[in-house]
Amino acid sequence: MLNNIYILRKVVDAMQQFVGCKIVDCYSDKLGILHLEIYDGDDIYTLNVSLITDFEAIFVTKPKNKPKKNIYRQFSSIFGEIIQKIEIIPFNRIIKMELINKKFFIHIFGKSQNNAILTDKSEFIKEALKNRKELINNKYIILQPKVTKISEFPNNIKLQKAISGSEFLFGRYLTNEMLFRLKLDGNAILSEFSLRDLKEIETQAELFANEIEASNYFYHSKNNDNAKVLSPIILNQFPVIIDKSNDLFALIRKVFSERISRYRFDKLLKTLKNIDEKFIQKYDSKIKRYSEIPRLLQLIEQYQNYTNLLYSIQDLRQKGLDKLELVDYEGNNTIIPLDAKLSIIQNIEKYFLKIKKIKRDISITEQNHNTIIDDYNEHYLRFQKLLSIDNYLDLKTHYRNHFSIYKKNMQNIPKEISEKFRKFEISPNATLYVGKDSKNNDELTFGFGKPNDYWFHLRGGSGSHCILKYNGEGKPPKDVLEKSASIAAYYSSQRNGGFVPVIYTQRKYVRKPKGANPGSVVVAKEEVIMVEPKSYDEVK
Asked: Is residue 256 part of a domain?
């Protein structure tokens, strides 16, 4: 949502209302959103900063009663600080808030690079929302990107890429809008343009940038493919305007709420559809059995004919035959399949058992047919109702109305990896997965874990299995291993201990003895690390 630098600049303009105000609280909630409560001398406002990947947002609300659970105090050393200045770092998606004694930086880079960082006046890092151990006490360094004019890009670069990556920082959507207005082909190579042409394009780009900067309205729009974008100007390639406002914070808040609701809607809808589709398949199968009754009756008749013919054999105790060809009472040759391990009389008994089972199945199918049809219609109507729902509130109501059916079947729905196991992002290239119980530990270690993944567990005690996925070069860094071990200790019987031993090794050295209880393993090679048990919020 804030991936466009021009929107981010407008956000910083709107934040100027807080210059001279006092920060009175800062906490994060269960969603991971950072909330700064700011007092302006008359009222308290909440600056909400979402650093959730794909849901980046900044907006202001009046504070409600804070939840009593699932909140985490953050950056407590800034309580009471006065905001002196708010600005955006040039050519970067970094917002800097200068306080009396500190500096506060908000990174809106996207994905794992989103962060909030607090430094002292000399810009040494004192606190960070993410990657604390790697950052704290280091000098805060901003890598300034190389600023390039359109005409300075290599001749083999496409025009669209040159404009998008130039000093104007338009990004994809604004670049496409400029190309559309100027009737230029973005796929054209720069070598197709003269230097004079490129200088004219730069002039037009500057005029376009000035138009964007001068805009006081903001638009939430979508295109024919239902892709949505937040923009400071009307975009021809996004012709349907969903909403517009001159209050940027209000619009961002509305769009953010809608996107979170849509995410929850899509996730819950997928789960409920999966359950209903399984019900439909189940009853389809039962109804199909009823349509097969005529075939089953023919099969009974065939098996009865087999038994009558087999009784005509003189030696019923003979074995070793896999079939017999006999002439029935109408003079027709009949081939009767046999089990060579059984005698003739035993094969007759086997056919009698088959006849008995088929008759029982037909009886049950006939008795239950009307009930099955009623149940099928009930599930089908519920499924059709589900498919007609297009908003989260109605979907939640539908879920509550059929809670008993959905809830008991949710355990049978295949879960995403992030739902099966606890998941913690240790660093940009290291993710730790933690088991939830004994059976889940086995699934994590032997189903999800790969041979070269790293495996962690409390030494000499019970606890969760932990798998570290590391996509960097060589062995994970020491701090990544320590963080992972601390979390492994936290999810063990020694959570409240001091320093405790945690073993780690590669997954290929962990095996499960035959007949062992769920969660029990044997480790061939191991290393031991002494750590304090810490939750993810304490180590990140």
From this structure: no
Answer yes or no: is 299 within a domain: yes
| pTM of the full structure | 0.63
For helices 248-291 and 5-15, the axis angle rounded to 10 degrees is 130
Cα-Cα end-to-end distance for the chain? 25
pLDDT in tens, 157-202: 999 989 988 999 998 899 999 999 999 999 999 999 999 999 999 9
Q: Is the domain of 118 the same as that of 228?
A: no
199 shares a domain with 100: no
Which residue, of 414, 437, 456, is where some domain finishes? 414
Domain co-membership, 333 together with 442: no
The yes-or-no verdict on residue 513 having pLDDT over 70 is: yes
Q: Is the pLDDT score of 111 beyond 70?
A: no
Question: What's the 3-state SS for 292-315?
Answer: CHHHHHHHHHHHHHHHHHHCCCCC
C-alpha separations of 348 from 49, 306, 311, 339 in Å: 78, 8, 8, 10
Write down the pLDDT at residue 186: 93
Q: How far apart (Å, rounded) are the C-alpha atoms in residues 183 and 124?
A: 49
Q: Are residues 339 and 468 in the same domain?
A: no
Q: What's the chain's average pLDDT?
A: 90
Q: What is the predicted pLDDT for the residue at 12?
A: 96
**Could you count the other beta carbons within 10 Å of the beta carbon of residue 124?**
12
Domain region containing 290? 269-414
> How many alpha carbons lie under 13 Å from residue 430 in its C-beta half-sphere?
23
The answer to whether residues 289 and 409 belong to one domain is yes
345 touches 316 (CB < 8 A): yes
Banded model confidence at residue 57, pLDDT cuts 50, 70, 90 = very high
**Which of 460-463's residues contact partners 24+ apart within 8 Å by CB, and which partners?**
460/501, 461/492, 461/493, 461/494, 462/492, 462/493, 463/488, 463/489, 463/491, 463/492, 463/493, 463/494
* Any domain includes 226: yes
- Kindly report the backbone phi and psi dihedral angles of residue 146, in degrees, each rounded to the nearest multiple of 5, phi listed first: -75, 125
Rounded to whole angstroms, the Cα distance separating 279 from 163 reads 53
Looking at residue 417, what is its pLDDT? 53
Token duo for residue 1: 């949502």
Percentages helix, strand, coil for the chain (3-state, rounded to 5) are: 40, 25, 35
CB 354 within 8 A of CB 337: no
List, for residues 439-463, the tens digit of each pLDDT value. Answer: 889 999 998 999 999 999 999 888 9
- What letter represents residue 38's amino acid? I
Give the number of domains in the chain: 4
DSSP 411-432: TTSPPPHHHHSEEEEEETTEEE
Q: Are residue 345 and residue 450 in the same domain, yes or no?
A: no
Same domain, 277 and 394: yes
Q: List the one residue out of 463, 527, 525, 454 whose CA is nearest residue 491.
A: 463
CB < 8 Å & 24+ apart, contacts of 294-301: 296/358, 296/361, 296/362, 297/362, 299/358, 300/355, 300/358, 300/359
